[in-house]
Amino acid sequence: MAIKFPHVDMEGARALLVDIDNTLYHYDPCHAAALQACWEMFRREESAPPGEEEAFKQAYRRHRDAVTRRLHPQGACRSRLLAFQGYFEEGGYAAPYARALAYDRLYWESFIDVMEPEKGAQELLARAKEGGLKVVAVTDMVAAVQFRKIVALGFSSVIDFIATSEEAGAEKPSPLIFNLALEKTGAAASEAVMVGDSEEKDIAGARALGLRAYRVLHEG
Length: 220
Ligand SMILES: [Mg+2]
Fold this sequence. Notes:
Elements: E1 2-4, E2 15-18, H1 27-45, H2 53-71, H3 80-90, H4 96-114, H5 119-130, E3 134-139, H6 143-152, E4 161-164, H7 165-168, H8 175-185, E5 192-196, H9 199-208, E6 212-215, E7 217-219
Parallel strand pairs: 2-3, 2-5, 3-4, 5-6
Antiparallel strand pairs: 1-7
Helix pairs in contact: 1-4, 2-3, 3-4
The structure holds magnesium ion.
């Protein structure tokens, strides 16, 4: 699957705000590989029968959703560490936090191994730099993970700043996170352009503050 970028008009703009997940790279194959690696470690270390794979993955999802419901709109609502902690607590495992730590590490290592930068994103970011725009990634997630992704994608030379929901205290489409991003660049909303994949979070959130916004489309 490719991510199709529309033509983004940066005329007169001083800042480009860009979403990370499903905009700079395609999320689904990374998540699938990451969760698979976690299942394989679980099967090995806990001697789980192969038939438990679906139950393991569904239970993980249930704990992820519970963390999201409890902590939304804070950045930590996306935490895999807390989801794995819930899983191992519920199962009555010893030192559930230690297991959660190992699974969270494996999850993100495996995820980042599979992640590849989208060609359209590389072109967009290169154009923004050529045009002298400040570039800031605006993203719902814990900071440490999103910082790692940008570095691993090879975008640290073209993305000047990152504004996460962990840092802002609220997820998109909250104005808190867009205003935090704008502050980092020194640009006014009318001088900034937003690019992302979510109509509700990226496009509506940015337009509500007066930014120009462009949506990328998932194809194939
Ligand atoms: Mg996204």
